[in-house]
Amino acid sequence: MNLVHEAMARESSPDGKKPRKESKKNTRTRFIATLLTWILLNLIWMHYSHAIAVNEVSKHDREVNGKYVLDVPNMFGLDRETAVDLNCDFKPKNATVPVVTVRIHHEMTEGELLLIWEGNSTDDCIVDQLILPPGEHTFYTTVIIDGEAEVYPSKYISAEMNLGMHLWEPFRTEGFVVANLLGLSLGIADRAIREIMRRRNESRIRNMPLHKRRQKEEWEQLAHSMSGGNPVDVDDLVGFELQPQSESAEMQRKRMREKFAAQAAEADGDTEAFVDEESVEQDDELGKGTTEGLTGKVEHDENIRTVSDLWRQLSGDDSDNS
User: How many Cβ atoms from other residues are within 10 Å of residue 168's Cβ?
Assistant: First the structure.
């Protein structure tokens, strides 16, 4: 019985708990990875849904921008209204200028002005959040002197004003739905890909010759044990017992061929003993062996300096030394 059958038997038997433990460990790892991915996607969207696109209108060290046009985009063509924060700060130009009145108007349509803030140049500028539809919106900053608008407001005040658009906030709910669907699809895709890879691996193993399959299984178990996995069963390593050091390479190859052929014959129901015809023919040609040249005092050969020199001597290839 090869290792594939043995592994299947261990899984079906009450005592074979190793594969199940390994499967449970991998399943738990994949579940934790999927959960962390799902949480990370939600956290990323939660952060970016509050992102603000800041538009600078005026700065204290520059001229006052009396007219600023804000273009509110139509995100995804859904005509969603966008929340806009208006942050402003006004200061007298210097200590000699009088305290003046400052007004901020919002023009949605041409000719229609809406006063959104009015106060002295020394007052705190507090404006409620604006909800604006897509399109162009014009903001006017004016200075009032004796009831009339001053053409050059920078002579009396310095201003700092910013308009911050919450572009993604109208889609916050849809974003969470997409993030959760993406996390779910990643989990399903992971399972599907692993199942496809498992089936391909099983198909490749089924089409593999029996002796190659056994070698692959034994090496996988050895690598698993050496990498810190579960200990390998002693019975699983029968095919890898140590050969006597005195045995030649040809005899070792013969022994391995006999073992693999015997295993294949057993799997096919053939009970006839395997005979290595190749080795028999070689034995007939070589005849009975002797110990000539293997006894007596060892002599030093100047031609043997490296392992490759020794291999040439053993293989009978003396062309390099001629």
Answer: 18
